[in-house]
Write a structure and sequence with these properties.
Blueprint: H1 10-21, H2 27-48, E1 62-67, E2 72-77, H3 84-91, H4 98-106, E3 130-138, E4 146-150, E5 156-160, E6 167-174, H5 189-199, E7 207-217, E8 220-232, H6 249-260, E9 268-274, E10 280-286, E11 303-307, E12 310-316, E13 328-333, H7 349-372, H8 374-394, H9 400-403, E14 409-411, E15 417-418, H10 420-425, E16 434-438, H11 442-446, H12 452-456, E17 461-464, H13 469-476, E18 478-479, E19 482-486, H14 497-509, H15 511-520, E20 527-530, E21 539-543, H16 549-556, E22 568-572, H17 577-588, H18 590-607, H19 615-628
Parallel strand pairs: 1-7, 11-13, 16-17, 16-19, 20-22
Antiparallel strand pairs: 1-2, 2-6, 3-4, 3-6, 4-5, 7-8, 9-10, 10-13, 11-12, 14-15, 14-17, 18-19, 21-22
Helix pairs in contact: 7-8, 8-13, 15-18, 17-18, 18-19
Length: 630
């Protein structure tokens, strides 16, 4: 019996596959079980087409044996088996796949056979943990059985076998453990069960193994007897492959909690099947609560990916857009192009088409939820709405058309959540803009003096309580051709002609005083002027175009943005008693006016939630002015 050499530059290619293509050793079991599943499919299909004797699905299975003493793992299937020529072609030539050829033959006809293997290299992943592979196989076409044996790069042998049953038995003789590698772990029952559950739970044929079981000793209650019991390790039928009519809400919820490690039921289940250029089944979930690290950099988004029921990867981020990164779940497709190790998606049109399809389904589910389950949607938005806003901002408004109607804001309209569409539908005929006010909370915003004039006009105000809100509106610019405008905007323009004329007159008559106050506050404000927005309050701060007061607060929290400030304007209410006081002080003691200007400026800072530079000096001036007022 002479040893044959692998074809296709075997030594170099085999070394590459063992050490580079696969990223972890446990993949070997997934690949060998997938190959066995292929063999079972082939035998069943060819039996149906009378190419070989037909066989019942009940007779098709995969069995795993562990032998710790001899350090072997044996995987036996009752599939189609291989002839000597097929051993030579499929195992003797690396990267030649019999499954791929078989799949090509089936492309012209309709069938329900899934062929998982398509590269012809998965078999060799076993060399990551094994020093020798023995393949004992008998084909279903009555040709003789043969044994293929190899220790890796030095080649292989093929010899006659006395195997009587149809199918293939692959025996892995494990390498010895080293300081860095623990190959013996794969001889443990718990490890094999864990890997089957992880990678091959939904292979359509039973995967069995004799497992150790301890039963009470009938002769001694304090002792147990060790026995062996054959156990099926896989569930075989994926929940997502079942009809919706067969599943209950509890089925979906329990699967979600066990599969994705959540203790709460999901907020939404999206289960559907698509047939087309890219066919796939998806089972997606929107969690009820955001994970603790959702808004941290270490959160890893993505969907579990299966190919024909075989687990491929845990976080396929290519299938999920950032805007919906909160969605978890899985996708099972026969059509995706995987790389040679089946661990990485190829970036091609199939992936993009699948990702686009998934995005549309999620979007539709959210729209339906907003329209039909408002309370549930509002709860969802409180958990994940910030992510939708961030995506509009990060995409520089590119995604606004897709996401803007999913946004919710609290507003002055009964303090309830409202959409932008709902806001616009309530706008008054003479209203030209969508008004908003920013702050840390609704309660804080309501205290702002700048709201008064807008509310007096009967206009609704959106309450922006997320730091990103104003940045988002800058990217969106407008909604249904209605621009966004802050109540602290420089050009609020809500006065009547009479009010405007009166303010302009007062401004002209007090021009010197306002100029003096501006000079006194040099470096702190860019202007001091009479306000058109205040009704009852004495002063307020507004910002010129660019960085708003709220943006200054947010940007100041980032060490990468030192010194970024809003161009502040101090506005004084000309109808408030403080204005007459300022006039009197200016006419009597212009130097004293500087103290009044400073106090009013710091007061305005505090109202806006901004820090004052010198609290001690501010307190001192307040006391001095109070004493002087006696």
């Amino acid at each position: 019996m002479s040893k044959k050499q692998f074809k296709a530059e075997s030594k170099r290619l085999l070394d590459l596959m063992i050490n580079s293509i696969y990223t972890n050793q446990e993949i070997f079991l997934r690949e060998l079980v997938s190959n066995a599943s292929d063999a079972l499919d082939k035998r069943y299909y060819e039996g149906l087409t009378n190419q070989i004797d037909s066989v019942s699905r009940d007779d098709l299975s995969i069995h795993i044996d562990l032998d710790k003493e001899n350090r072997t793992i044996t995987i036996t299937d009752t599939g189609i088996g291989m002839t000597e020529a097929e051993l030579e072609n499929n195992l003797g030539t690396i990267a030649k796949s019999g499954s791929l050829e078989f799949q090509k033959k089936l492309e012209e006809g309709q069938n329900d056979v899934d062929i998982i293997g398509q590269f012809g290299v998965g078999f060799y992943s076993a060399f990551m943990i094994a020093k020798k592979l023995i393949v004992d196989t008998k084909p279903a076409n009555n040709e003789p059985a043969n044994i293929w044996e190899s220790e890796g790069e030095d080649g292989y042998t093929i010899q006659a076998s006395n195997k009587e049953s149809i199918g293939t038995k692959i025996t892995l003789v494990l390498k010895e453990d080293t300081e860095d590698e623990n190959y013996s772990q794969f001889l443990e029952e718990y490890k094999i069960k864990e890997l089957i559950k992880k990678y091959s739970d939904y292979v359509r044929y039973p995967i069995t193994m004799e497992v150790t079981k301890y039963i009470p000793d009938p002769t001694d209650e304090e002792k147990t007897i060790e026995t062996k019991e054959e156990q099926t390790l896989n569930s075989m039928v994926p929940l997502w492959k079942k009809r919706k009519s067969e599943l209950t809400e509890e089925d979906y919820n329990e699967f979600y909690k066990s599969k994705f490690n959540d203790f709460q039921d999901p907020a939404k289940v999206i289960h559907y099947n698509v047939e087309g250029n890219v066919s796939y089944t998806a089972l997606l979930y929107i969690p009820k609560k955001a994970p603790y690290n959702f808004y941290n950099g270490d959160f890893e988004a993505g969907l579990q990916l299966y190919s024909k029921g075989v687990f491929i990867m845990d976080k396929a981020k290519e299938l999920l857009p950032d805007s919906y990164r909160f969605v978890t779940g899985l996708v099972d497709s026969n059509d995706l192009s995987l790389n040679i190790s089946r661990e990485i998606l190829q970036q091609d049109r199939q992936v993009k088409a699948l990702a686009n399809s998934i995005e549309k389904k999620i979007h539709k589910a959210l729209v339906d939820m907003l329209e039909k389950e408002r309370e549930a949607y509002e709860e969802f938005f409180e958990n994940f709405g910030l992510n939708l806003k961030f995506d509009i901002y990060k995409s520089y408004g590119f995604n606004k058309e897709k996401l803007q109607d999913l946004l919710l804001y609290k507003s002055s309209n009964e303090d309830k959540y409202t959409t932008l569409k709902e806001y616009v539908s309530r706008m008054k005929e003479d209203q030209k803009a969508i008004y908003f006010a920013s702050g840390a909370s609704v309660e804080e915003i309501k205290k702002s003096p700048a709201l008064a004039k807008v509310l007096e006009k009967g206009y609704e105000i959106l309450y922006f309580t997320d730091g990103v809100d104003e940045f988002v509106t800058q990217m969106m610019q407008a909604y249904e051709e209605k621009p966004f405008k802050s109540v602290t905007s420089n050009d609020l323009d809500l006065e009547t002609e009479e009010e405007k004329k009166d303010r302009e007159t007062k401004t002209e008559n007090n021009k010197d005083m306002l100029t003096k106050m501006k000079e006194d506050l040099a470096g702190q404000v860019v202007d001091v002027r009479l306000s058109s927005r205040l009704t009852d309050d004495p002063v307020c701060l507004v910002a010129e175009e660019g960085v708003s007061l709220e943006m200054e607060k947010i940007l100041s929290l980032n060490p990468d943005n030192p010194g970024i400030k809003a161009s502040k304007v101090l506005e004084i209410n000309p109808n408030h008693p403080i204005f007459e006081t300022l006039q009197a002080v200016y006419n009597k003691d212009q130097e004293k006016l500087k103290d009044y200007a400073s106090v009013l400026y710091n007061q305005a800072l505090l109202i806006e939630g901004l820090p004052i530079e010198d609290p001690t000096e501010y307190a001192k001036k307040i006391v001095e002015l109070m004493v002087a007022a006696k």
